[in-house]
Amino acid sequence: MAGEYLRAFFVGGIFCLIGQALIEKTSLTPARILSSYVVAGVVLGASGVYKPLVDWAGAGATVPLTGFGYALAEGMRKAVDQRGALGIFTGGLTAAAGGIAAAVIFGLIFALVSKPGEK
User: Fold this and answer.
1) In a domain, 41, yes or no
2) Measuring CA to CA, how many Å separate 9 from each of 13, 19, 71?
3) What CA–CA distances, in Å, run from 100 to 4, 71, 103, 104?
4) Which of 56, 64, 80, 117 is deepest in the core (most CB within 10 A)?
C-alpha cells in the first residue's frame, strides 16, 4: 500500500517538476503549459502509451491535467466502440463529466465563501 502512494507521489512530482521547469526556462505562459498537458494526455492516451503509467502510478497519473486528457481519449475510444462515429462527440464529455461537474461546483462554493477584493 505504501508503494502505491510513493509511485503516485513520484509521478505527480515529475509532472510538477516538468511544469515548473517549463515556466522558468521558457516563455510559455502557465495557461499554455496547462493546455499542453491536457493535449499530451489525449495524445498519449489515444496512442496507448499513457495506460501503463496509469496502471503503475494510479492517482499520480490520473489527477494531473494529463489524466484529464487521458480520460477524454479513453472515454472517446469506448464510446466509438459502443456507438460508432457518434461516440467521437459524446465519449470525451461523458467520461470527464464527473470532474467537470466537481470543478464547477467547488468553484461556485469557493466564489460564494470567499471575500472578493482588488489587487
Assistant:
1) yes
2) 6, 15, 20
3) 26, 11, 5, 6
4) 64
Q: List Cα–Cα distances, 118 to 10, 45, 108, 112, 115, in angstroms.
A: 37, 41, 19, 16, 10
Contact 12, 63 (CB under 8 A): yes
Residue with cell 507521489: 9
C-alpha cell at 82: 459502443
Burial of 100 (0-12, 13-18, 19+ CB in 10 A): exposed
Give the number of domains in the chain. 1
Find the range with the poorest average confidence among 31-35, 52-56, 71-75. 71-75
Tell me the residue range of the domain where 66 lies. 2-113
